[in-house]
Amino acid sequence: MLKRKISFINFTVIVCGLIIAAGTICLLLMQKNLIKEDTKYLAYTELAQEVKRAKKNIGFDENENPYIKSDFYDPEEKDTYNENVYVFLQSRDGSFLDGRMPDDSRTGLDIGLQSLTKVTFQGERYYVATRRGKRKNGTEDDSFYLVCAMMSEQAVKENYRGLWHQSYLVIGVVGAFFILFALLLRYLIAVPMRQLNESIKKSGENLDFTDSLEYKGCFKELQMLTDANNHLYQRVQQELERQEEFNANVSHELRTPIAVMHAQCQVSREVAEKKQDKEAIKSIEVFERQTNRMKNLVDQLLQMTAIDRKGTTFSMEDIDVRDVIESACDDIAYIDTKQITFEYSFQPTIIHANMNLIYIVINNLLSNAVKYSNEGTKIYVSCGEKDGKSYIRIQDEGCGIEKENISKIFESFYREEKDRNAEGFGLGLSQAMKIAELYGGGIYVESTKNKGSIFTFFIPKP
Ligand code: ADP
C-alpha cells in the first residue's frame, strides 16, 4: 500500500521544479522573440546610419567612378567608426566598386535596392541595407550605383550577450535557491517525520510507550501530530500498566486457592485410596490434573508479568548451555510417552543470563517439539556460537506449522486450530520470545507442514 504513495516532499519538489522549469522556458522564449525583433531594429538603425555617413564621404575619380574617401575608415574616429559594419559600393548589376567587405573579398552582392535584408555570405548570415548612390552633381540615379552596408547577425547579437548572461545567471540563482529549498524541506519535514515514524514503529514493536516523542522543529502541524501521538502513548501505556497490574493481581490472588486445592487433592486422594474408592480416585485425578494446569498457567502469567515489568532485575550468571539442555531433555524424557529419541550436536556455548529464564526457554521449545511430534520420531538439539551470537537449535519431525500461521505463534494465547486439544495455553512461545528479547535476541522459525519445524533461539554474545 505504502509503495503506491508518493512522498509529500518529493511531490512538492517535483511540482515546484515543474513550475520553475515552465516559467523559465516561457521567459527564455519571450526573451528570444523580443531579441529577434530588437535585433532587426538595431541592425536597421546601425546600417542606415552607416550608409548615411558613407554617402557623405563619397568621392569621384577622373572617370567619374565613385569611391569611399579614406577618412571614412579612420579608426581614430571612435564615435563614428564601427568595425563590424562593412560599407562598400557596388554597381546595379552587383559588381563591386569600392569599400570594405568581410574577408576583404571584393565580390559584391547579388541584391538590388533593399531597406534591410538578410543574406548568406561565405557561410555566415548578414544583415544588408542598400541605398541609391548620388552622382557627382548630386542627383540620384537608379541605374548608377548602390551604397551598401552589411553587418553579421552574430555581431548584432553580441549586443545581447550581456542580457543572455544575466538570464543564465538568474536561472542559476533560481536553480540554486530551488535546490536549497528542496534540501531545507527535506531537513525540516522529511527528517523529523522519519524520526517520528521510526520511533512510533519501535514503540509499537516493543509495546513500550514510556518514552514520549519529541519534535524540535518549527512546524505547527508536526508539533500537533507529535502531541497527539504523545497523548495516545500516555493512554496506551496507562492501559498496558493497568492490564499488567490486573494480570499480576489475578495471578497472585489465584496462587493461594490453587495451592489449597492442590493440597486438598492430595488429602482426598489418600482418603480415597484408603477406602479403595476407585470412582473417587478417578475423579480426584481429573481434579488434580486440572489444578496442575491452572497452577502452570498462573505461574507462566506471573513470570511473564515479571519480565514485562520495567525495573525487574534478574540475577545473571555464566551458563553452560549444554548442561541446561541436557537437564531439560532428561526432565522431558522422564515424562515422555512417545518414545522420542534426542540427538545432540553441541559446541561449547557459554551465555551470560538468568538461569531460570534460560531454562524456561529451552523447556518451552523442547516440550513443544515433543508435544507436536509423532511417536518414535527424533528431535535434533544443537547449540553453538556464530556471527557474534549464541544459539540453541531444536529440530523436530512433527506436524509442522501452516505457513500463514508462523507469524502468529508468538502471540499470547495463540494456538493453531488443530492443536486446541493438546495440552497448553498458547503462552510458551510468547514467553520464550519475551525472554529472548530481554537479552537483545530473538527466535526464528522454519517449518514445513507435516514435515517438522526448526526453532532457533539466539542471543548476542556479551
Ligand atoms: P502451546 O502451549 O499451545 O504449545 P506455544 O506458545 O508454545 O503454546 O505455541 C503456540 C502454537 O505454536 C502451538 O499451539 C502450536 O500450534 C504451534 N507450535 C509451537 N511449537 C511447535 C512445533 N514444534 N511444531 C508444530 N507446531 C508448533
Automatic annotation (TrEMBL):
One of its GO terms (molecular function) is phosphorelay sensor kinase activity. One of its GO terms (biological process) is cellular response to phosphate starvation. Residues 249-462 form the Histidine kinase domain. Signal peptide: none annotated. It comes from the Bacteria. It is found in: Membrane. One of its GO terms (cellular component) is plasma membrane. It catalyses: ATP + protein L-histidine = ADP + protein N-phospho-L-histidine. The keyword Ribosomal protein does not apply. The chain crosses the membrane at residues 6-30, 167-189. PROSITE patterns: HIS_KIN (PS50109). InterPro entries: BphY/WalK/GraS-like, HATPase_C_sf, HATPase_dom, His_kinase_dom, HisK_dim/P_dom, HisK_dim/P_sf, Sig_transdc_His_kin-like_C. Pfam families: HATPase_c (PF02518), HisKA (PF00512). It is an enzyme of class 2 (transferase). This is histidine kinase. It comes from Coprococcus hominis.
